[in-house]
Amino acid sequence: AVVFHRDGNLRPWISQKTVENFWYKLLNTCRDLKLCLLKLQKYRIRSMADIMHLLCIMGLIDKRKAKEGKYIIESFQIQIHHDLLFDYGKMVAIEFTQEKKSINRSNEQSVDLTKHSPDDNSIEFKNAVIRWNELVIECYQDKLDRIKSDSDSDLDYECDPYTSCNGHMLSWLPLHMIKARKFSAVVSLLSKRSFLRDRIEFRGVLGGTKLYVSDIKELQKMKQIEHEGSN
């Protein structure tokens, strides 16, 4: 909910595989969450797909089978069941970050997590969002490395689409980069002709153009927020 949303749409449909890859990355890079994964195995929950199935049974997420793009195979997509789950996810992100800080200060007096101002919560949430979007970007690093540069010959662009990208990457990766404050990287990605070609092919001329406009507006807004915050 916290990572996969856009302004004005807190419940977008997201590739289930993408979410599972993100969870796997998160659980295996965070030492504290690794312990949770071990505990879940006692209840025969051994994979990200098992967690997804449990959330569906509990009614926390909706699931559908869908096909995006004329070359993309049919696959499962998920969305959170209600907008309120975004607020719950935000609260969990703040609490998790604060608790992690308190553990790191184990040699000091225990920290009362209730004694935080709204500004503190805002900072904690911002830091969690940045880090978690960085993890999504890491999931796609190998694909980013394979994206062709503008110096490639025209013959290279005759290859089949989606050789370097997939559906979520084409629709969402620039936004993940913006949320992770990777401003130079997102400008570089949006400038790649291969990325533009695949995005237009995937979303259509109108849909692909709208995404570019949305990404640029979001980039300008985030840079303005960062500028104001530094003053």
Write the layout of secondary structure elements.
Layout: E1 14-15, H1 16-29, H2 31-41, H3 48-57, E2 61-66, E3 75-80, H4 84-104, H5 118-139, H6 141-146, H7 167-179, H8 183-190, H9 193-230
Antiparallel strand pairs: 1-3, 2-3
Helix pairs in contact: 1-2, 1-5, 4-5, 5-7, 7-8, 7-9
Fold and architecture overview:
The chain is mainly alpha-helical and 231 residues long. The chain is 62% helix and 6% strand. It has helices at residues 16-29, 31-41, 48-57, 84-104, 118-139, 141-146, 167-179, 183-190, 193-230, and strands at 14-15, 61-66, 75-80. It has a three-stranded antiparallel sheet. Residues 153-158 have low confidence and may be disordered.
From the structure above, extract its key features.
three-stranded antiparallel beta sheet; mainly alpha; 231 residues; 9 helices
Unreliable sequence segments: 153-158
* Structural Rg: 19 Å
Please give the order of strands in the largest beta sheet: 1-3-2
- The percentage helix is 55-70%
Q: Counting H and I runs of at least 4 residues, what is the number of helices?
A: 9
User: Structural class given helices, strands, pairing?
Assistant: mainly alpha
Sheet-strand content, in percent, reads 5-15%
Q: In oligomeric terms, what are we looking at?
A: single chain
Any idea what the shape is?
globular
Residue-averaged pLDDT, rounded?
Answer: 80
What's the β-strand tally?
3
How many angstroms separate the termini?
A: 30 Å
Q: Give the biggest beta sheet.
A: 3 strands, antiparallel
Order of helices and strands: EHHHEEHHHHHH
